[in-house]
Amino acid sequence: MGGAMSGEITTEPTSDAPQAAEARPASLRWWKEIAYIVVFYLVYSTIRNRFGSASVDSEVAYEHAKLIMDIERSMHLFVEPTIQSWFLDAEWFLHFWNVFYGTFHFLVTGGALIWLYRRFPADYPRWRTALMWTTGLALIGFALFPLMPPRLLCVCPYGSGEAYGFVDTLKEVGGLWSFDSGTMQKISNQYAAMPSLHFAWSSWSFLALYPRLERRWSRVLIAAYPWLTLFAIVVTANHYWLDAAGGALVLAIAVVLATLTHRALEQRVARSEVMSA
């Protein structure tokens, strides 16, 4: 996908031929990108956690959870308790998915950003912007629709595990971290569930990487990644599947916004070049 210099004869690379890295735009600097991403994520985390679980009315979050479950029941697709029940006796299996939930979200997304920056720098700004739009739009959902995730239905005063059949696998089986500490419960927003950024970010990784991957096995892996993430958020009782649908929606909006933004920027640059010629 690398650009060709004027006058050169080029051929499309085969699936087995390595692609040359694109020329990097002069304005693109790695240290600026790191600064942008770090500052953006710190601002996002501050806003998300500033109004954490302790400041959200748990009864409102519970009513929203009942609404989500009622919608899924009306579609005959309230399947989360059943899916989780199939694996409750396999603690090692649930432990793996707890680790998957807590790590792949960041590792794959971060790796995708780095790979795009190094190999496809001309495409990188649009996909970086799409990811930021996705994350920023999710804050609107968190603010307007605080949602009690399935795992908290086991302990909230308005429902019970017996009524809904969910198990908090992070608490009962364990992973790399826990929400049980008082500090974590105060600063984190455990009701920031709709939309699911786990599913949105995994789908972003698929969209950004799939057309640019050369090997069939790598394409299969990245195509499977969003579905593995969907399984992870359901089997660990961190999300309803409708949260994933919400994640897909904000991602779609974000990609459109990022495309329009960068198209307008390209047109502005082109006009400036014409005027200065």
Description:
The protein has helices at residues 30-50, 58-74, 80-85, 91-119, 124-144, 161-164, 169-172, 182-187, 197-209, 216-235, 241-276. Mean pLDDT is 82; it is low at 1-18. The two termini are 29 Å apart. The longest helix has 36 residues, at 241-276. It is mostly helical and 277 residues long. The chain is globular. The protein is built from eleven helices and no strands.
Topology:
Elements (H helix, E strand, L loop, with lengths): L29 H21 L7 H17 L5 H6 L5 H29 L4 H21 L16 H4 L4 H4 L9 H6 L9 H13 L6 H20 L5 H36 L1
Helix pairs in contact: 1-5, 4-9, 4-10, 5-9, 5-11, 9-10, 9-11
Q: Beta-strand level of the residues, as a percent range?
A: under 5%
- Please provide the count of β strands: 0
Roughly how much helix do the residues carry, as a percent range? 55-70%
Output the number of helix runs: 11
Main beta-sheet annotation: none
Distance between the termini: 29 Å
Order of helices and strands: HHHHHHHHHHH
Average pLDDT confidence is 82
The residue ranges in which pLDDT falls below 50 over 5 or more consecutive positions are 1-18
Shape: globular
Rg of Cα set = 21 Å
Helix/strand/pairing class, anyone? mainly alpha
Notable features of this structure?
mainly alpha, 277 residues, 64% helix, 11 helices
Outline of the structure:
The chain is mainly α.
